[in-house]
Amino acid sequence: MEKSSIKEEQQLDRILIKNLVLKNVTGVDSWQRLKSQPVVISVWLYTDITAAGDSDIVTNSIHYGHVTKGITKLAETGTFKSLEALAHAVVRLCCVHFGAVRTMVKVEQPKALLHASASGVILSRAKVDFEGIEGETLGDVSGLGREDEVFVKDLRLHAIIGVNPWEREEKQVVVINLTIYPSPLASNKSEESKSHNLRTIVRVLTRHIESSGYKTVEAFAVVVARIALEKCHVRKIRVRIEKPSAILFADASGIEVTRDQVWLNRVREEEKKAGRVFVHRSVEDAAAKEIPASYAHTAFIALGSNVGDRVNNIYQALDMLENNCNSIVLDTSFLYETPPMYYTDQPAFLNGACKVVTSLEPLALLSKLKEVENNLGRTAGIRNGPRPIDLDILFYNDILLNTEKLTIPHLALHEREFVLWPLCDIAKDMEHPKLYKTCGQLLSQLLKVTAESEEGNLKIDKVIPIQNKMWRWKDKTYVMGILNTTPDSFSDGGKCVDVEKAVAAAERMKEEGADIIDIGGMSTRPGADDNFPEEEEIARVVPVIEKLRKNGFTLPISIDTFRASVAEAAVKAGASVINDISGGSRDPAMLSVMAKYKVPVCLMHMRGDAKTMMSKENTTYENDDVVEDVSIELYSLIQRAISAGVYRWNIIADPGVGFAKTPKQDFEILRHLGEIVSGPDSLLEGFPSLMGPSRKKFIGSATGVQEAEKRSFGTAGAVAASVAGGANIIRVHDVRPMWEVIQVCDSVWKRSQ
């Protein structure tokens, strides 16, 4: 604001109405019920009271009694979708109807959030902001809109926080105050002011805070601010965190930080240069696809098929989305095989969901989706009946739309498990703008309802399509047989360099119970040469794959390589899975090959190469926490793959025991495998996992067996631990004995479920 206007403002007086308590329907209450709630309104009206002060006549000023009656009538007879909407209505009333030069209003809702004393909004507007404006105004004429605040007051949660040993033992109360600055004016943006749902923001932050264990309030506050900026997409936030129990003779100790998107972008750039990744980074933030400026809308689309080649139908639909529908696919869910609903006399469906950005308006997007369905053979038939492809718009930005042709959000979204399961993979914390619950809450609520019904929960299987078959991760632990066509592998080098011997070995492993054969043409043991010509590696593996397929070999074949050219040649020869020990990081072309061929991929964690991975540098993990670092780094590899176009349902994660890890660290991975792949706050939640402990050095370190080929009994123990930890695929040399171990383990941990 210019100096002259500041001087003019200083000459104005203020009329105050403090803590006016009214009843009003504003959004939903803390239990998400649409009902009347108390609101507390305070108003400051800026005006010149000189005439009233000189004459002692109240009509020469703004009568606070009239203002109170006006606000009461407005609040108690109207229904508002949010506190911001109510605050905008009050500030307009004061400036336009009562003639205040400027008005500041604070609207507070006590107990609006279960664990906070209140939430609210503070707005300031001048009379000039409303000239020629009928509805809400940004406050851009006066510049006062920069000062808008949305706040959460005294959010009381429990967390591990502190450096002292006793503070690490038990959770203590922390009190958090959040102030969000929603106005685009503060960041010189021309877009509309964004309405933030505090309930959703608090849910996201609460889940992190109550599972965290920070030593300093400084780190605690900065991370809370970052998650709000990154996952909740606020523009600017102030976070104050207090520890009431920290100092005996003080009410609290704490810290206050303010962060914005400018800070976040700078930090991200620094992390990118340093090769680091923030733990709670979201998928969309890793997007590498070039997005035209006109693709300004975000939509979530449900995918379904139960006629013909279901997988191919979905793949073709996704291709058409990008090629024919002015859309770019940013992310996909996992795939689920689900029983039919409504009309049940039909085959099972394959269901998923995708997140897209598009330049099309909702009805235009719907029209394009119908074209895709028609092109893939969908015809008019029984309602909810069989169809080669079904595409439904679930969400579009955060709009509510209800027309004869289209309803957004999708009308039946909340009653369909086959929609909510995949939607939660990519939008778990997204709030339904009409039902006021996140997708995760809607699914949890639906599961409780169906569990208590006569039919019980539906049988819904998370699946991965491998070589025209569906692998159901809940059914069993799959056995991957190792076939090395190398002269120098650590335990079986030189045994299968001959094509006929390799083919015979694959056939034998199939008879012994293998579900998939992993063929590798390069040794990646510590110290091995992993820089020999790609042509030589291709010559080692492709003839074996071709011969197996020519002989009618029916098992899936995985190609074990980090080279894109080798992977591509192997897939063309008949391989159906790519297993990359570098997680797609060593060859810049690998991720595009994975995306192009749409085959399942195993992404493994490692550091360095065969010669350097066991160095002190590569086996040193931050805070000596190999579990957390491996999770973060593997998560980063997955984000890169998704951003390159690899479908989420095609990704298998491998923590990489034996690679860039000491024996002690390998046992840590094995000990905490369950936390890594399926813990309550796991970064890898939902992703199937592969473990390859067979004959590794860490087994010899525990058993004293130096010869790798003689480590079968130790391997059996590691295999059992892997299954107990939730591994979905076990990669082994000795197929039959390990198959038997897995059958016993599955009988204990999987088939009893």
Features:
753 residues; 21 helices; ten-stranded mixed sheet; magnesium; nucleotide-binding; Dihydropteroate synthase-like protein; metal-binding; 27 strands; elongated
Describe this structure in words.
It contains 21 helices and 27 strands. The protein has 753 residues and is of the alpha/beta class. Strands 1, 2, 3, 4, 5, 6, 7, 8, 9 and 10 form a ten-stranded mixed β-sheet that branches. It has an eight-stranded parallel β-sheet with strand order 25-24-23-22-21-20-27-26. Helix 5 crosses helix 6, helix 14 packs parallel to helix 15 and helix 20 runs parallel beside helix 21. It is elongated and about 110 Å long. It holds the Pfam family FolB. It catalyses: (7,8-dihydropterin-6-yl)methyl diphosphate + 4-aminobenzoate = 7,8-dihydropteroate + diphosphate; 6-hydroxymethyl-7,8-dihydropterin + ATP = (7,8-dihydropterin-6-yl)methyl diphosphate + AMP + H(+). InterPro entries: DHP_synth-like (IPR045031), DHP_synth_dom (IPR006390), Dihydropteroate_synth-like_sf (IPR011005), FolB_dom (IPR006157), GTP-CH-I_C/QueF (IPR043133), Hppk (IPR000550), Hppk_sf (IPR035907), Pterin-binding_dom (IPR000489). In the C-terminal section; belongs to the DHPS family.
